[in-house]
Structures are given as C-alpha cells and as structure tokens.
Amino acid sequence: MPDTLEIRFPAAGVEAELAVTEATIRATDLRQFPVGGEPLATFDPGFMNTAVCHSSITYIDGDAGVLEYRGYPIAELAEKSTYLEVAYLLLNGELPTAAQLQEWELLITEHRMLPDKLKTVLAGFPYDAHPMTILMASVAAFFSFYPDAQNFEDKSARDLNIARLIAKMPTLAAFAYRKGKAKPYINPDDKYGYCHNFLAMLFKQNERRYEADPRLIRAMEVLFILHADHEQNCSTNAVRSVASSGNDLFTSCSAGIGALHGPLHGGANEAVLRMLREIGTVERVPEFIEGVKAGKARMMGFGHRVYKNYDPRAKIIKKSVEDVFEVTGVNPLLKVAQELEKYGLTDEYFVKRRLYPNVDFYSGLIYEALGFPPEMFTVLFAVPRTSGWAAQYQEFITDPEQKIMRPKQIYTGHRTRAYVPMEERA
Ligand code: ACO
After folding, report:
1. Is 304 a catalytic residue?
2. Average pLDDT across the chain, whole number
3. How many angstroms from the chain centroid is the CA of residue 288?
4. Is 265 a catalytic residue?
5. What's the average model confidence in pLDDT over 107-127?
6. Within this chain, do residues 60 and 177 fall inside the same structural domain, yes or no?
C-alpha cells in the first residue's frame, strides 16, 4: 500500500489523497486544488525543500557529514584515487579498470591544447581581467570552435566534447593566470599527468623540465577530487537550467562558472582569504566574531545549505594543509583561521545555527601557500568541478523526466491598468 498524504480543503470543497513516493509528493498533484481561481502550488525561494531530478551521481547526508560519489566515500577516493579516475567514475558510474584508465588519460592528454584562435580572444581581455571572467567567456567560446557539441543526443559527440572540456580547463586556467602576470603561455606537456601538467603550465619559468614536489601534486589531486561534484548546488543547477533549453555542454558549463563565481558559492574561498588578511592577527579574532554576531559581517567559509555538521571535505583539506606547508612553509594566516574555527565550534551563535567550516575555509590557505593570488582560487575550484558539471549535464540530457526549467512566481504587481500618456505622468 503506497504512502499517501491526505489533503482536505474545505474552502474549495475538495478532499484528496496525494501519493507519497521517495519521500516526496509530486508538486503538479497540487494543481487539482483551486484556490481563488489559481491552482495550488508551493512557494520555495532558493529551492529549500524541492527535489528537481533523480540523480545517481553524488550522495550527501548533511546532518551526518557524509559525501559519496557513486557510492564511494569521499575520504577513500581522496586517499586512493587520482582526479582523472574520479572524473571517470562520475561520468561512467564505475571506477575504471587499468586499461580503461589508460585509455581515458590518453584521450584527455590528446585534447589538452587550446584552439589557436582562442589566444586572440584571450588577448582582447584587459590585463587585470578577473580570471573567472576569462574562464566563463572562453568556455562559452568553445562552442564556436566545436559546434558538434550541439549534437548532444549523439553519445559519441557528447563524450568527445566532455573529454575536450575536462582536458582544456587546466590549460585555460593556466593561461588566464599567466595573462594576469604578463608571462608567456606554457603549452601542455604530454609527459606529465593531469595535475603535474597543470602546475607546470602555471609555474614553469626558464628551467628545461619543470619538476613539482610530489607532495604538491598529490595535494592538487586531493583538492581536485574533493571539488569534483556536489549534487544540486547553485552552479550545477545553473548548468542543468541552461541545458534545459536545449543548450550544448560549453554554453551550459559557462553558466555554471558564472554561478560558481559568487561569494556565497565557490567565490567563498577568495572571500575567506580576504577576511583572514583583514583580521590579520589572532588578537583581532574576538572583535571580528562580535561583528559577525552583530550582523556586520559573515564568517566566510562557515555554514552550508546542506551540511549541518563538519563538511567532510573540510576535514580532508585540513590534513592537506599540513602536507603543503611541509613543502612551502607555514602560512601565518593559519593561526588566524584556527582561532576563528575554535570560536565557530564553541560560540553559541554558530553552534545554535549549526554553522561549521565548509570546503572553502582552509583551501584558500593552501592556494596562497602555492603562490596563487586570491582571484585564482575559484578558478582552481572550477577546473575540477567541470567533471561534475559534465556528469550532471549528461544525466540531465539523457533523463526522459526532465523538461525546460521554468519556475512559477507569485505575482504581486499591478493588474491591467489604463495607459498613462507622457504629459499626464507625475
Ligand atoms: N556567518 C555568520 N552567520 C551565518 C553564516 C556565516 N557564514 N552562514 C549563515 N549564517 C546565519 C545567518 O545569518 C542566519 O542567521 P539567522 O537565522 O539569525 O538569520 C542563519 O545562519 C542561516 O543562514 P542562511 O543564510 O539562511 O543559510 P543558507 O542555507 O541560505 O546559506 C550559505 C548557506 C550561503 C553557505 C551561508 O552559510 C553563507 O553565506 N556562508 C558563508 C559563505 C560561504 O562560505 N559559502 C561557501 C559555501 S560552500 C560552497 O558553495 C562550495
């Protein structure tokens, strides 16, 4: 016997039972109840309690602090896998065999170069353009170089363009970084793996061969794995929403990059570092906390729509901070961050609201220790999130339940008024 929700609506003289499946009711079932001539609907700004799809990619239990990709706990993937293995898992549902991984890595290596003419597009940006703007515009521009992305219903065209995007994101990110520093671009090098090559394209100077410390390569792999997907967050929702009107992968992911850039989402890591710099010393932490409690500021890198417990990614990043600082030396802002966290985990304001450190709280410290300016931080989030967006895009495109996204509104403006000629307007 299926679960049902009984609805009694005396004003409209309606009584009905709504089917409850998968702990949800179908919002369209409410339409049968007319209220003042309008079909009953739900009001849910920010999608606080609305499921928009079935998905088998990422599982989160925010209360328990659990995150799994395709059923594998994030901590285990971060410890044992490479980023490209995880990207394969997100896209295909299973971890690759050795042969599948080799083939996938080869495919990605083959597509790392940017189209030559894209360099002309990059040259058109001001020297101090934000690298996220460069990323967003360039990913949108990919569609003009690879128009076959419009054949998204053809699996082979879709797979090829997903590989192109995942392969080119580090190159694009590194070019955006070097443009800001007025340094010549470094092309990808087939001899390096995904993360090592990324570090080389970013930091290579005049040396014949760029050798990154293996601890830094591993830290990059871990950060990329942790950032690869996070189910229906703001940017993924943007990707799905833009895809829903029949758009290609590049246009859709370009929208995702825009959404990620906001300081309440991926831009928070940049905001955390600016906050830590502003606070400056451990002694000034109590004063800052008082300001947060008085509503003057937010503690960036704290709080999450879904996690009401320690973000499992933040736990893993905290460990990576130590590994990176072994190579780079300790970032003095670490002490400020630790002091803030101490307050955050004990002060009633944060405890009552269940605000814990999120993924962005410590990642900025690593990025700064690696030599990145704050404006690159969200770029370093966008590069690995591309595999998640691509997996979500693919799931959306192949889901027969999905439709063009079109929320309802509750109209509060004027109704049919007499037009006011210019000479009569106040
Ligand atoms: N500092 C201080 N107070 C906070 C914070 C914070 N970081 N986050 C939430 N609160 C308070 C709010 O003021 C509110 O208090 P109230 O009930 O007295 O009004 C309460 O906690 C609930 O906050 P909401 O904003 O309603 O929670 P929501 O789920 O909408 O927002 C968000 C989640 C946007 C992440 C929020 O916690 C925030 O702004 N955090 C700081 C930015 C940040 O770190 N973003 C990165 C998130 S991770 C990611 O996107 C990759």
Report:
1. yes
2. 94
3. 28
4. yes
5. 95
6. yes
